Amino acid sequence: MPSNTPGPSGPAAVLCGLAGWVPPRVVTNEELAERLDTDDTWIRTRTGIRRRHIAEPGQATSDLAVEAGRRALRSAGTETADTVIVATTTPDRPCPATAPLVATRLGLAGAAAFDVGAVCTGFVYGLATAAGLIAAGVAERVLLIGADTYSTIVDPLDRANAIIFGDGAGAVVLRAGDPDEPGAVGHFDLGSDGAHEDLITVAAGGSRRRASGGQPADVERHFAMRGKEVYRHAVTRMAASARTALSGAGWTTGDLDHFVPHQANLRILHSVAGDLGLSRDRCVTNVDARGNTGAASIPLALADAMGADRIRPGDRLLLTAFGGGLTWGSCFLTWPELTLNPQPERITP
């Protein structure tokens, strides 16, 4: 899909609030090693992950989304939004969408509210959706939340996936503004390839499996990923999408201050950065302490980096993601003046 930016006649979506939230419970590599055939060194060598946060029993995706959404609204200095978008792979229920419940719990009953399902690319797709609503004059202020509880769909005894994923939520508030002001999000590149839908999947739970009759096997109820093939596609698709967005913006990699990719695993992040000719110090990462949090990963990485004073006003950022579907997407923004309220949890070394 060609890159694009708001036209001169339409307002831009401008970032004005940001927050992240993770459940208090921390699961270390050592704890995973107690039930899986693995150890801390094996996990860190292959993924770069040291620990991840996991939701408590009974804690749903909407609970995480509400926590992040409330903090993002405070960051923006507002209590209102006329649209709420929740990007997630783990909705509270297959039906209805999770966003209306989140909106109501945030005191935003009556606002337009819907979910976006693009797996780990969901946040970037959500940004593009919010930007389109604002440019069309349908919305003035959008609350976009990426939230996932992968612990509810990953088999806890699946060594390949249980070590990778964590639970969390990240949220931004976007308002109508000028395309040239700091915080304006644009130059989107979005894409998909359904020929590879089976690379990242939960086989049961949808109409395809129900239509085939019979009860699904336990393995079909859990998240499955063909890691080696996903690695290859993730690196190729994210790098290509980033280049397309760069070209559309008229930027080069030398113009970037920070590259903020979906936090899949450290090997993928470093491979994409290397493919683009970016030094690792310009790649924003928090995967070591958060794990892969799906649609929440980019806003959580932004919140953590801002809390550590790594991202500052005027910095130029490239956001890039890849997820099941297959889906991928990229966009740009210049970082605005923001307030984190309250400060996000600091990541310990």
Automatic annotation (TrEMBL):
The protein's name in its UniProt record: Beta-ketoacyl-[acyl-carrier-protein] synthase III
Catalytic-site annotation from UniProt: C120, H262, N292
Pathway linked to the protein: Lipid metabolism; fatty acid biosynthesis
Enzyme class: transferase
Reaction equations catalysed: malonyl-[ACP] + acetyl-CoA + H(+) = 3-oxobutanoyl-[ACP] + CO2 + CoA
GO MF term (any one): 3-oxoacyl-[acyl-carrier-protein] synthase activity
Family label: Belongs to the thiolase-like superfamily. FabH family.
Biological process (GO), any one: secondary metabolite biosynthetic process
EC number in record: 2.3.1.180
InterPro entries, A to Z: ACP_syn_III_C, ACP_syn_III_N, FabH, Thiolase-like
Sequence ranges assigned to domain Beta-ketoacyl-[acyl-carrier-protein] synthase III C-terminal in this UniProt record: 247-335
Location within or outside the cell: Cytoplasm
Keyword field: Acyltransferase, Cytoplasm, Fatty acid biosynthesis, Fatty acid metabolism, Lipid biosynthesis, Lipid metabolism, Multifunctional enzyme, Transferase
Residue ranges constituting the Beta-ketoacyl-[acyl-carrier-protein] synthase III N-terminal domain according to the UniProt record: 114-194
Domain of life: Bacteria
Assembly with partners or alone: Homodimer.
Biological classification of the source: Bacteria, Bacillati, Actinomycetota, Actinomycetes, Kitasatosporales
